[in-house]
Amino acid sequence: xxxxxxxxxxVGRGGDGWDLQYVLHREGRVDRNCDPCPIQETNAATISPxxxxxxxxxxxxxxxxxxxxxxxxxxxxxxxxxxFIEEFGHRTVPVEMGSMMDxxxxxxxxxxxxxxxxxxxxxxxxxxxxxxxSIQQTELALGRVAYLAQHPLFDQIPALLDDVVATPxxxxxxxxxxxxxxxxxxxxxxxxxxxxxxxxLVQIAGAKYVRxxxxxxxxxxxxxxxxxxxxxxxxxMSSLNCEVEDYDKHPAARDAVxxxxxxxxxxxxxxxxx
Length: 274
Prior knowledge:
Layout: E1 2-5, H1 20-26, E2 41-43, H2 49-57, E3 63-66, H3 74-77, H4 81-88, E4 92-98, E5 107-113, H5 114-125, H6 136-141, E6 146-151, H7 153-156, E7 181-184, E8 189-193, E9 199-202, E10 208-212, E11 259-263, E12 268-271
Parallel strand pairs: 2-3
Antiparallel strand pairs: 1-8, 1-10, 3-12, 4-5, 4-6, 6-7, 9-12, 10-11
Helix pairs in contact: 4-5
């Protein structure tokens, strides 16, 4: 199961020293109940697609591929927010307002133009050098956190495919089954959940903190049973508010073991199914 949050600015790598220890220090989480346990990582150039398949896809072992997309045009080009305004500002996209972590209000989807999304949300967001968890509720209340999440943007705007490698060798001869795009302000969070398929998460700009729990930890992180409506309807979500755990409500979570990483532009994380 995985959860992620976006603590860093959209533009740039976040400066020298941006790593897991830096984020934990900024969040005041240096005294938590477990020591940092990084996800295994390697430079993408040092592992062949065949080795990647044998050692990680077949065995369902997560891996961070540093500099996986370092040569992509998007890394750098997409940091220029004016590019999106000038080229695609008139296009309309679904943007989520609010938070999936809010059980009462949840998210509200709104159709807005890319131009308005960039001007009203991304540019103001980038003025903050770091988005700690402690300010997220304040920013959410002010309506400043917005997320273009899991959107088939390349289907809508095929020209953007020129800036990425849509069929990386590490995906095998058939390439990925689907390609989605996430673009958000600082302060966006994805609740703890699992997917029934393997994922390659490629970071284009900014920084993203990701936490992974192995499937043998499922009983400790309170999975929702599914059914009904809302974010938990598919039965692949956890009721645990990851990173802001309520151990009185979820005592078993105190003993749950997880791994974590901070992804920077050009990095990729292989997240196995389940």
